[in-house]
What does this fold into?
Amino acid sequence: MDRIKKFIADIGWPRAIIALFLLSLFVLAPFVNVRIDSSISDTLVRFGMNGILVLAMVPMVQSGCGLNFGLPLGIIAGLLGATISLELNALGFLGFFTAIAISIPFAVVFGFGYGQLLNRVKGGEMMIATYVGFSSVAFMCIMWLLLPFRNPTMVWGYAGKGLRTTISVQEYWGGVLNNFLSLRVGEFFFVPTGTILFFALMCLLLWMFFHTKTGSAMSAVGANPEFARAAGIHIDKMRTLSVILSTLLGAIGIIVYEQSFGFIQLYMGPFYMAFPSVAAILLGGASINRASLTHVIIGTFLFQGILTMTPSVINSMLQTDMSEVIRIIVSNGMILYALTRGVRVKSR
Amino acid sequence: MKKREAAFNLKRFLMANIVPIIFILLSIFAIPISQFSASYLIQEMLIRLARNSFLVLSLLIPIIAGMGLNFGMVLGAMAGQIGLILVSDWKVIGLPGMALAAIISTPLAIALGWMCGAILNKAKGREMVTSYILGFFVNGLYQLVVLYLFGYLVPIRSPELVLSRGYGIRNAVNLLGIRNCLDYCIPLTIHGIKIPLGTFIVIAVFSFFIIWFRRTKLGQDMRAVGQDMEVARSAGIPVERTRLISILISTVLAAYGQIIFLQNIGTLNTYNSHEQAGMFAIAALLVGGASVAKATLPNVFVGVILFHLMFVVSPMAGKYLIGQAQLGEYFRVFVSYGVVAVALVIYEWRRARERAYARRMFRGEA
It folds into this structure.
């Protein structure tokens, strides 16, 4: 009994409850005529779709900038890349990588500015990040209307200008990663191998980065800024670099998300996108000043698992759609839990 | 020497009031373009002052206690809405209906405020982001209650309130019974402009309450806690309790504020009204020149007028300027988020500079 208690204390109550909840959903599924194989397949697809967006939390948390509520900024860089690649009529894998290539300079510039801003507001990063995200999304709403895009599949038909709210990428580079080396067993089971491989590649690159000299310096800044300063590490530079990395991963993440989802969502679409990613990494065991790749992988799987399973299982059980409410309570409850814990006062 | 000081003060004044100044300039630019008549704008501003001031007032007390902008005021707004839903189900109309809604929402708001205060005491130094997420979290609970339990555990008799499936409240609740009952309970019209005198009287009473409250023992304790928690603690002030009470008062006031807001509008948007309440109240307060650490009554009223002036004017200005009303719409969304971002950045920036200055003083380099 003591061992169970200690185990639960180690992984944290909310995490244990949610993991058990997910497990019970999988157990219940066959009894309410929900196919396990299609559920697992859906979970895998969503896992690949959202993984990199969750990964975008890691650099900033590690360097002590807190949870990246400003993820929409990175997403905007990705959206710019995606829309411009469509404007260039780039197809298939070429289109997908064109989108990423175009989004990189945007992400670096945005991330640099955002990093400079966050360096001046140490201690209040998270609230400001949230509002930087919101205001940049709102600003881009204006820009999507005004930017001179011409591709007829993207702009409003009657006006001939101003981008649509959702743009299909199906005929350009929709599903290129999902279908790459994909595995299909029977009618319901599908593994998006390409997307998961790409996610694994990103994880590997980030893992390698954190084992270089710069990477470990970055972690040191987050773990103990005073010590890092004494060791001769340029704190502000490391923090800026981490913000650029996070923004960049956000940009790549949204492009991967779009190729799987099939649509680009503009205007208010990216508005709340930071919250599911924040919740996912916290669910995986990260705190507001420590996050690892394991946290990303476990967290994304748990969170997306719940998102996939609750609608189907709960709906067949109760005959109502409670998934949205459960999603709100679980994700925000998780963030709330993390914010009220880990009260290690940051040295300033 | 003197001259330099004066120049410095002017710069300081501009820096301190940069947000309201930008808004005044924007309004001067946008009002002529929008082609609205003066009497229309005055009427509109009076209505919006009556509608929003009380909600903004509810933000003041946590700022005194050093807890920043209380994004958790949406909790109070939700309590107020539950009161209104029940009152419109029981068909109590007019001022008694409003009073009953306030009475129902009070215990709810106290419970929610207590919870919010207790949670924020566990997240010192991160109050704003925590209260912000708490708002989302309680929004989930609110949806659970209103969408699933109302009409199922809580009896709702009026079929026009309930979704066709038999439980859960509809998206829009008509508040015709209490619409404008407070605003125009004392009819007054000057030059064809209707003045919502009743609400103004309530707002004035609560402004005096806040002035009075600041001078009480509790109010002074809150100021001390807001200045420095450790010093306040060693002076024998129960820090946690004082902070909790400040949030509690704010939540209850927000509940009343939401009831006043919705009696002016006349329809309750069951699942959206409260979300916007917090956002717009905070933006309005900051537009009025308040900061995260300091807010006064003039900030409230100047802020409501300037913010909503822009709100009314910008879609039309966008339409005449570029030919798209949608553009002005997005512009005002951008401004309402941007202004909060700017205010937060200025506040943290200043705090970082003060910390650096204190460090230099400590080393004796000043």
User: Anything to note?
Assistant: Residues 315 and 328 of chain B are 4 Å apart (CA to CA).
